[in-house]
Each structure stands twice: as structure tokens, then as C-alpha cells.
């Protein structure tokens, strides 16, 4: 019996190894296909941006939007940014891709300002490679100049890991951008390991609390405690607080009770194409006001 068991284990081990090897090949295949198709998509201008509203907790008004990369490929179908960005970072596509995102987002916000007379700040996610590239500030300046967007209507979202990779460089670039009037925020806060004392020195304006914490605030005491602590820390540092991934009235009530400033999430709206966002905004503040009305008493 022992021999039989050993034999089975060996067989299984061998099979597992085969599966593993197969996974590696298909993963490598997938990556090279992605690389090839993405290069083409950028050249042929077949990428797009979706925009997700940010809502003021106190008034329920739309206070701005976050631009999020979308790519539907004929061969691969819908590919998510979580898959696109690492590939683009590895194969050097992130610079042209990032520049395209910046130009497109700035143009969108600028057009809305010209058409409606209303400012609509737009936030763009920035990869570490972009931040650390020496042409970064020039890319931002070009996107602003080309679109004629006032710098205070552009917000850059950087993750903690991006900021800690090269803190001196980050400090220098962020200071320059801040002096230009661009807004800066830390994205996915709580998931990285930024040195909290660094926060004090970085010229950032806002903290976005990661949605993994928001998921738990209603029924996980630890998550609730973390969010509470992050909000008080942010307040002490004079930072503006945004809660990501708010999906329920209960989560919104929690953030309202702690006096978070803004939220984003499916409760109000998923990220939507530019035209759909314009229609949503044109419907005006009624939608926003309804979402702001607390249906449940804060706990
Ligand atoms: P992120 O910047 O933290 O963006 C928020 C993500 O959460 C988005 O996913 C958004 O669709 C999703 N989300 C928003 N509200 C909810 C909600 O209520 N529930 C849930 N479950 N999810 C929600 P998405 O669009 O798939 O983007 C994923 C990440 O990819 C982004 O996370 C960002 O880090 C990165 N990314 C997206 N676009 C770009 C880009 O243009 N450049 C760079 N460098 N990164 C990007
Ligand atoms: Mg973001
Ligand atoms: Mg985030
Ligand atoms: Mg994220």
C-alpha cells in the first residue's frame, strides 16, 4: 500500500509539474499576444477611457471623475487594466500609453469646461515608471497646454509603492507639479507600506482609502478600525479623504459619520464611457442628491 501511495504521489507530482510547465507557456503566450495587440491598439488609437464620478459626501454633488483605461480587443475581448499595466510596464509601452491617457483625460475635462462652463476635475493614475522617467513633468505640461486645461483641474493618483520606490525623486517631481497647481493623491492607501513619516514630507493633497478596507467596514471590526484610523491620520495631516469602492448605503453612512470628504463606487456609478458620463452630469444634481440622502442612520 505504501508503495502504491508513493507511486500515486510521484505520478501526481509529475502531472503537477506538467501542469505548471503548461501554465508557464500559456502565460508567456498570453503576454506576447498582449504585447503585440497592445502595441497595435496604441498605434491605431483603439484604447479608450471610462470615467467614474467622485461624489462629495456632504452635498452629494459630483466633484470630479477618475479616468480608467479600457481596452476591447477583437482577438482577446475585454482586457482589464490590472492585466494591461504590468505588461505595458515590462515592454516599455507604459510611456506612450500613459501619455495618451493624460492627453485624453485632459482633453475630456477641458471640453466639458468649455461646453458647460463647469469645472470637472479629472484624476489620472500614474505608474512608477512614468513618475521616474525624466520627461514626466514635460509630458504633464504638454497635456495641459495642448488641452488648455487649468492645472488645478488635473489630479494625479500615485500608489504608496510608487512613492516609496525612489522617495527623493518623488519628492522633487511632486513638488514641481504641486507648484504648477496640479493636485496629487495617494491611491489604494493602506495596501502598500509607505513610511507614515514620509507622508508628512510628501506634498500630497489627498488620500484614497483602498476599497478592500471599505468592503469590510460594515461587518469587520478590524477594517472599520483601520478606516477610522486612516481618516483621523489624514485629518491630522490636513489631507482630503476619498473612500474607494463604496457599494452600499451602509458603507456610505460609515464614511459620512467619520466625515470623509468624497467617495467613489458602484453605489453611485460604475466607470462609464465619456458620452454616458456627460448624459449623467447633464441630468444634474438630482441623481447626486438622491445618492447623498442617508437612507440608513449612521451607526
Ligand atoms: P484604482 O486606481 O484603484 O481604480 C479603482 C478600481 O476600482 C477601478 O478598476 C474601478 O473600476 C474599480 N471600482 C470602482 N468602484 C468600485 C466598486 O464600488 N466596487 C468594486 N469592486 N470596484 C470598483 P479598474 O478600472 O479595473 O482599474 C484597476 C486598476 O488599474 C486601477 O486601480 C489602477 O491602479 C489601474 N489603472 C487603471 N487605469 C489606469 C491608467 O490609465 N494608468 C495606470 N498607470 N493605471 C491604471
Ligand atoms: Mg486610482
Ligand atoms: Mg485605488
Ligand atoms: Mg487599485
Automatic annotation (TrEMBL):
It comes from the Bacteria. Residues 31-285 form the EAL domain. This is Bifunctional diguanylate cyclase/phosphodiesterase. It comes from Halomonas litopenaei. The chain holds residues 404 to 702 of 727 of the full protein.
